[in-house]
Design goal:
The protein has eleven helices and no strands. The mean pLDDT is 85.
Length: 281
């Protein structure tokens, strides 16, 4: 009686080859952005090395902000805090304002998209208001709330809500007529129609609006904090400018860009969990 063949080494070799292939693909994807960043840093270094340069070199920037880089968690009270706490304060405002915008925007978008009368009445108003710059709302919010923090949250809300409303509305209006005909034939109730047809068909449009909205929210809070003061990455940049700390501004901009990218990736990740498999790209 012959012993069964042991194929575990072959499986191990297969798994190792698969893992090495995945690692190689990951490195190939990582290499182009790293090369681009290196080229950018070299150009920046060369252009700012002259005696009349107004901006610090990358090396000088790192030297000037080394304490901020290695210790982003310090808190000496008031506005004298590390970059982590500055970003955290801004993110708290963004989270509240964006969540409110998402709830109201999705609800309004569905309402406007399902009613031709509401669409005719409100869509022109939305198209006008969405072109208003975020900071134009700040004096109105300050007059209404009389406090800096609620005013900043309102600016985020009013900035993020328009792409959410417009994309949700468009998603509802793009539902194929065949879907609606089937719903009528099957005599689906309104809750059944919402959960089985309207919402699944509209989800890709909703997440497109959410993705645009989170980007605009992050832009708006940085700009608003420059004017309202307090703790936040926007106020940190403005305070550094008033103190002529250009290197601090540059490192804060790096933080702003990284956090903005992470927020965008977060929305994409949540969308990948919610979207039906056939609608994922």
């Amino acid at each position: 009686m012959t012993a069964p063949l042991d194929i575990r080494p072959a499986r191990s070799r297969f798994n190792l080859q698969k893992l090495s292939g995945q690692a190689l693909n990951w490195l190939k994807g990582l290499l182009p952005p790293l090369v681009a960043i290196l080229i950018f840093l070299v150009i920046w270094q060369v252009m700012t090395m002259g005696p009349g340069a107004n901006l610090p070199t990358p090396v000088r920037t790192v030297q000037d902000t080394w304490e901020l880089i290695i210790n982003p968690f310090f808190d000496y009270g008031g506005t004298d805090r590390g970059l982590f706490w500055q970003v955290w304060s801004s993110l708290q405002r963004v989270a509240l304002g964006f969540t409110l915008a998402a709830i109201v925007g999705i609800g309004l978008g569905i309402l406007v998209g399902t009613s031709s009368l509401m669409y005719s009445a409100l869509d022109p108003l939305f198209q006008i208001l969405r072109t208003v710059p975020p900071l134009a709302w700040l004096p109105i919010s300050l007059a209404a709330f009389q406090q800096a923090n609620p005013s900043a949250i309102f600016v985020i809300f009013i900035t993020a809500i328009w792409p959410i409303i417009i994309n949700t509305t468009e998603g509802v209006r793009q539902i194929p007529q065949d879907y609606n005909n089937v719903a009528r034939v099957l005599q689906l109730s309104k809750p059944e129609y919402f959960f089985k047809i309207l919402f699944p068909a509209t989800v890709p449009y909703i997440f497109t609006g959410l993705r645009i909205g989170i980007g605009l929210s992050w832009l708006a809070i940085v700009a608003a904090e420059m004017l309202i003061g307090g703790v936040g990455i926007g106020f940190f940049i403005w305070d550094a400018w008033n103190s002529s700390r250009i290197s601090d501004i540059i490192i804060a901009i790096v933080y702003v860009g990284i956090v903005g990218l992470l927020l965008d990736r977060l929305i994409v990740f949540v969308g990948s969990l919610v979207l039906p498999e056939e609608q994922k790209q």
